[in-house]
Every structure is written in structure tokens, then in C-alpha cells.
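does this look right to u?? pyridoxal-5'-phosphate version
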Amino acid sequence: MTRNTDDRRFAELLHHRRDRLEQGDPITPPLVSAATYHLPRSDVGGFIYGRMSMPTWEEVEAQLAILEGGHCVSFPSGMAAISAALFATVTAGRRVILPSDGYYTTRLFAEAFLRPFGVTVDYVATTEAEAADFTGAGVVYIETPSNPGLEVCDIRAIATRAHAAGAVVIVDNTTLTPVLQRPLDLGADIVVAADTKAPGGHSDVLFGHVATRDVGLLQRVKDWRKLSGAVPGAFEAWLVHRGLETLEVRMERMCASAGVIASRLAAHPRVQGLRYPGLAGDASHATMARQASGFGFLIGMTLESAEAAEKFLADCPFIARSTSFGSTHSAGERRARWGDAVPEGFLRLSIGLEPVEALWDAMAQALDG
Ligand SMILES: *Cc1c(COP(=O)(O)O)cnc(C)c1O
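got this back:
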């Protein structure tokens, strides 16, 4: 993935409505929340009923398709996209292989709703996925870099081996977004993502999408949405459309700041552990340098104790004390409070749009104070 093709798709994203516009049409997409559509005939195309399709979803799906390089289906949350992709691909009696260290709710979902229906649910650590045994797997699901540990795996290598075993490959691409990593180009069959994070980008909307180039899988996922009724709202789609217009420029600032802050944190005497894949010495660096065009805005930082980590957050005025990530403002939280398998003093930091020196000054004071 070269920088030039990236630039082209970000420009295309901003002008994607161009060829459909008629004299007097709004440049920005109208927010259409209609449930029903003028339907005197049933033998022609067009919109029929809001659970089947909606004009405002199609606008955001057109943007996402440009970014992902595949067809996209939007959902009301990241988990709605993930459950759609899994229900569209799992089979009773076959294995689904999930990351043991990825997004926690995906595992809860599999235990509550896949295992009871006879799906064999197996877990593999992200760093062990490349060498894992895929025999009997119908689905190999990976998350790279993983949330919250920022471990990575080689998407292309895993896709090759999973396909040889007859499995469909699903990649949760939430942490990097398609601005930085395009799993479909690397051999994945399906991408799932929470657009609640950086694509929405302002902590004011839940949204998700599934991307694929396989028309059979696309139809399954669309049928799931239509029949299960897990449909996004028009206003949410409209907000994400607006968010996606600035995603590339926000990512540029957030990733650049994360790089600066990570290298300073790594040199700070109070920091016991520091994960940022952009640091040359990080275990995730080499693989990510190969398969992504940037290293993201998430940093994993470990202080000496839970109390020290909480005090750092309390003392830093420019880090919101909230869950989630990818918003305009920096945010941080101690993940052990939710049961993630990380040290008690581990903080997941999401670097936002604050000017980097103002943010760093506040962080350094909170560390030194
Ligand atoms: C947040 C997140 C999700 C779930 O997204 P929601 O919109 O909260 O449902 C899935 N995967 C990863 C990696 C996430 O960070």
C-alpha cells in the first residue's frame, strides 16, 4: 500500500457523491430517516422499507467501501457488525478460533450465543495465531493490533494457512481503521470494525461495519441485517459520514502525537512497561511496519500500581477518564478494572487531537508531581 494510492482514496472519499449529483442537490448527504417509501409498484428497484435499506446508510457505506477496498454493510455498533459476521459464517460442529487477548465482548458473545448452538469456540493468543493449528476451523478470527495489549499477527500469513484449512478469515480492524490497514488487501475475507471509535471520532455515536469482497458473504451479512433487524439509525449514519470526512487528518495528528509521547514515556523513570508499536524496539513493530501504513494512536503504559495509575489519570487534566478510544480528546483507563489480563497498573491511553506539547506537559507533570 503506497502513500499515493492512499492519498487518492482519501480525496475520492470527500467527493464520493459527485457523480450522482443533479442541479440543486445538497453537496452533503441529506439525513433521511424515512421508514417507508413511495411504492406504487413492486417490480422496480429503489427503497422499500427502512429495515432493508436506507439512503443515509448507503452514503456512509460508499465512503467505507472506498477506504476498505470492498463492499461494506453498516451496523448500529461494532458488536452488531461482529455478531453479524460470525452468525453469517459459523457452523455447528466446526471450530471458530478467536483471539484470547482481543476485545473482551467478542469472547462473551461467543460463549453466550455460539457455544450453546454447537459451535466449537477455541482461543489462541494473537502472537501465537501464526503457528496455530487451524484443522477443522470454519472461521479464523483475528484482531491486530489487539485491544488492549497491542499485540499483532501477520494477516497475510494467517490468511494463507487458514484458507488452506478451509476457513474464512475475519479481521477486527478497529484499532487501526482502514486509513492505516486494509486487511482485504492482505487476504482477509471479512473486516469488522467499531466505527464508534476513530471513524465516528467524537464519542457521540455507536456504529460499526462489515467489509468484504466476496459477494456470497456480502449477501449473508446483508440478509442477517435485514432479517435480524440489527439496523443502524439514519442520524447515526449521518454522524459517521461527517466523522469519516476528517478521519485521515485526525489520524495523522493522533498518530504523530502518539509517536512523540510514546518515546518520551519510554524514557521516563516511572514508566515500568510501555507498548507502542511505532517504537523500533516494540515486539509488534516489524510486523506492523510491513502490513500497516502507520502505528496508531493507542499506547499501553504500566505504572507501579493501580493507585499510581489512577492518580496519574486524576492528575492529568488533558486525559479524559473514560473507556473507549479514538476520539478528539485523549482518554485513558486502567483496563484491569474490567478484568482484562493486564497488570493492575496498566493504562490504555488513546491520544487525541490536543497539541502535543500541551498534552505532554500535562502528562509529565502528572507523572512527576
Ligand atoms: C469497541 C470495540 C468493539 C465494539 O464496538 P461497539 O461499537 O462498542 O459495539 C469491537 N472491537 C474492538 C477492537 C473494539 O475496540
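The first strand starts at residue 71 and ends at 75. idk if thats expected tbh
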